[in-house]
Amino acid sequence: MSAPAVLLEPSTAAPALAAPSIDDRVEEVAAVAGEHLARHERDATFPVEALDQMRSTGLLGLLVPRRHGGLGGTSADLIRAGIALGRVDMSVAMIFVMHCQQVAALVRFAHPRLRDELLPEIAAGRHYLASVTTESGKGGHLLTSQTALTAHQDGLAIDRFAPIVTGGEHADGFLITMQSPGCASPQDVSLVYAHRDQLEIERSGDWEPLGMRSSHSVGLRLTGTVPPHHVIGAHDTFRTIVTTVFAPMAHLGWSACWLGTAAGALSRVVKLLRSPQNRRRADLGSELLLTRLSRARQRIDTVHALLEQTRKTVEQTPDLTVPHIQLLLNGLKITAAEQCYQAVDDLVDAVGMRHGYLKNSPTRLEQSLRDLRSAALNYSNDRLHLVDGKLALMDSEVRLD
Amino acid sequence: MDPRFSDALVPFLKFLDGKEIEPDAPLRTYGLDSMQAIELLFALEDTFEVMLPDDAMNDTTFATAGSLWEAVSAAIDAQHGLAGDAFRAAA
């Protein structure tokens, strides 16, 4: 029997008796994120307090195997964390799941020496990882790079500009896509790891976005040299890393964050509507209000069901490159991006101008809507639909499992 | 590998730079991307008058010229039966 394609290493030791659960750690991070949310949202600054809490609770090591000192978590744990953090702050949730996506790639593909160096540091909360995959002039193509690594006697030289690096100014290390040294085409892509102190980092431009304001996704120019064992997998194997770890973890993790954001928004609206002061003022029998609440809830439950189904399929499927599995994963991302945004948009209509449109409403729908507007753009739904159209043509049986 | 197979591949491999297509030629390195895979598939199906099964639609099949030819060749054998060798020989 083949091993599941995304399987994190099994745990080898029982947790210490008094160790807090993963859910408890997530709650601690969520509480701190909530405390500082308004300021980071206003100033478009990075949620350093929430990151510090991820470090001190060990949550940064969620996907690090226990034998390397981590929590030995699973993709189900990651999804639960993404939903719980997304209920409070979508930026914090996305920062966390994107870090975990990098960790999963290291666990599965890094050279044993690099794994032994890095994973204990991540588990100890000393290493927050950022991903450097964006590049000017490639139109969002994840699987290509325009800039080549250069091999020389001291190692591999990196000189790379990336227009959007979430958390780039606070990361302790970077996973960077570059053309392989001496490669034949832009499709020969390698993934390399660089410590912050191995790089000169120059920031470029400001961060003043519509939503996701505290993700602080700035442009960075990175230059430096790393040793050969910092190549993740081997040269030219980035596509395999994408199909086995990056894409599944991204789609599952992002969808969890978006779902959490929509669920948090609905929860705040329902609590407001049911509050003793409001019960007397609002007409909770309004058919329009009830229908809109029903629609929002329906969208949220649909995304949750699809997310769970996709997670189980990913865990049980040896080859994730077959069209009907790719379609399921891409469909999850597209559906979650559309439906979570629509759910919050329904809620804006449901509660109207004061609680749906004003910044100072406790529903925070205004921020949730702006944050969720990024979901369709974050690896563009338009691009995924084109890919899915081609994939649909390759699956004439229309296999469902 | 059948010369007609190589001829069908060439238009999809913009980074081949005139090199001979060997069985271990990495198709993605030479320029085949997932958006073009379906056009290549149609070209091969037209050339060899076969239908590739859905089971062959994965990264392993499209990894190298050799792995793709193996899938095409298996489809020729399956769909042209004993005439498969003659069919290939006529190519």
From TrEMBL, chain A:
InterPro entries: Acyl-CoA_Oxase/DH_mid-dom_sf, AcylCo_DH-like_C, AcylCo_DH/oxidase_C, AcylCoA_DH/ox_N, AcylCoA_DH/ox_N_sf, AcylCoA_DH/oxidase_NM_dom_sf
Organism: Streptomyces misionensis
Pfam families, A to Z: Acyl-CoA_dh_1, Acyl-CoA_dh_N
SUPFAM superfamilies: Acyl-CoA dehydrogenase C-terminal domain-like, Acyl-CoA dehydrogenase NM domain-like
Entry protein name: Acyl-CoA dehydrogenase
Keyword Secreted: no
Cofactor: FAD
Keyword match Nucleotide-binding: no
Family: Belongs to the acyl-CoA dehydrogenase family.
Acyl-CoA dehydrogenase/oxidase C-terminal domain segment(s): 254-375
Xref: Gene3D superfamilies: Acyl-CoA dehydrogenase/oxidase, N-terminal domain, Butyryl-CoA Dehydrogenase, subunit A, domain 2, Butyryl-CoA Dehydrogenase, subunit A, domain 3
Record-level Gene Ontology MF annotations: acyl-CoA dehydrogenase activity; flavin adenine dinucleotide binding
Sequence ranges assigned to domain Acyl-CoA dehydrogenase/oxidase N-terminal in this UniProt record: 30-125
Keywords: FAD, Flavoprotein
TrEMBL record, chain B:
Domain Carrier residues, every copy: 1-76
Pfam families (alphabetical): PP-binding
Superkingdom of this protein's organism: Bacteria
Keyword Cell inner membrane in annotation: no
Record-linked SUPFAM superfamilies: ACP-like
UniProt keyword list: Phosphopantetheine, Phosphoprotein
Family matches, as InterPro entries: ACP-like_sf, PP-bd_ACP, Ppantetheine_attach_site
Keyword Phosphoprotein: yes
Protein name: Acyl carrier protein
